[in-house]
Amino acid sequence: MYDVTEIRRDFPILSREVNGKPLTYLDNGASAQKPRAVIEAVTRAYEHEYANVHRGLHFLSNLATEQYEAVRGKLQRFLGAAHEDEILFTTGSTMSLNLVSYGWAAPRLEAGDEIILSVMEHHANIVPWHFLRERQGVVLKWVELDANGDLDPQAVIDAITPRTRMIAVTHMSNVLGTVVDVAAICAAARARGIVTVIDGSQAAVHLPVNVQALGCDFYAITGHKLYGPSASGALYAARARMAEMRPFIGGGDMIHEVKRDTITYNDPPHKFEAGTPGIVQMIGLGAAIDYMTGLGMENIAAHEHGLRDYARDRLAGLNWLNVQGHSATKGAIFSFTMEGAGHPHDISTVVDQKGVAVRAGHHCAQPLMEFLGVTATCRASFGLYNTEAEVDTLVDALETCHRLFA
């Protein structure tokens, strides 16, 4: 049974007050709070298990290496990858997507080659491809959304030309909560020999993910949204694609042998993991994955779908609130503006006085803001520990805000 009251007790920060009010944390799309299991795993690693990994033969080094490398298997199972060595440790989705850009795309794409993107991509899944546009003449092709904020897979497929080399799309929008049918896109791309890069930063938090079923070549995730530490994350890279990649960060641990005139690289995935890694961060991410799988990703998804439906109904009753995106299959993420209010920052500041934490700005998605015809929005994003009572608190805070501005 999914008992959200018990789950909330696992998160120490949720018991605190902000501005004299109980904290209502609705900024999970930016970064999620950490359960005690993660906090304790990080503390234990620093207090009792810390040493550098891979390089030592002493007890602590072996212990730290064992704890660190165990996370690779956890992520393999969490993402449904076929092999452990298809999991690359990174600092998060931004590094993962840049790794694809520098390691796979840059050596292969030429002037005039095309990368297809959607207008709702996070900047982390845009800027690395702009690098290729600026430096190598690669062409970026943009696919827009429909009136509900959905990305039609056929619209992506129709954008394919003989020069298309890559399709890079989000699995779930960080602004609208839109869930994309990436399996359909990946199937069409695979049939045409086109590589697919999926930004799973949001989706992996809220939905069960199986990269083999999706059929993608690359899938990026970030730990701090997965209730784990910041500066932790991973890239799934199918073996065939990883074999085609070149390392773009050089240093210790990614080599077999270095001489004055030659160098031989380590085997993947370590070939792409140079230097002393975020040892404790990754151990903490492993604890977060254990926590989420213990709850059950299907159970988390069902709980959040209930929150989504309740919040959608409550927010729909506020006729002065402009909610962006109305996908039937969206996640529990709501972006909005308010009639009579100035900037969304003003809304965020007012509701913060009620203890409600929401995000305001362009959410690192400026092409989407332009498409929606706004410069910024407020965003309330829900997680596995949020409740319907917190939806009510948000609505009450928004009503106070509306009265103030009216």
TrEMBL record:
PANTHER family for the chain: CYSTEINE DESULFURASE, CYSTEINE DESULFURASE 1, CHLOROPLASTIC
Alphabetical list of Gene3D superfamilies matching this protein: Aspartate Aminotransferase, domain 1, Type I PLP-dependent aspartate aminotransferase-like (Major domain)
Top-level class of the enzyme under EC nomenclature: transferase
Source organism of the structure: Paroceanicella profunda
GO aspect biological process, one term: cysteine metabolic process
Family note: Belongs to the class-V pyridoxal-phosphate-dependent aminotransferase family. Csd subfamily.
Lineage: Bacteria, Pseudomonadati, Pseudomonadota, Alphaproteobacteria, Rhodobacterales
Protein name per its UniProtKB record: cysteine desulfurase
Cofactor: pyridoxal 5'-phosphate
CDD domains, alphabetized: SufS_like
Record keywords, A-Z: Pyridoxal phosphate, Transferase
Protein EC: 2.8.1.7
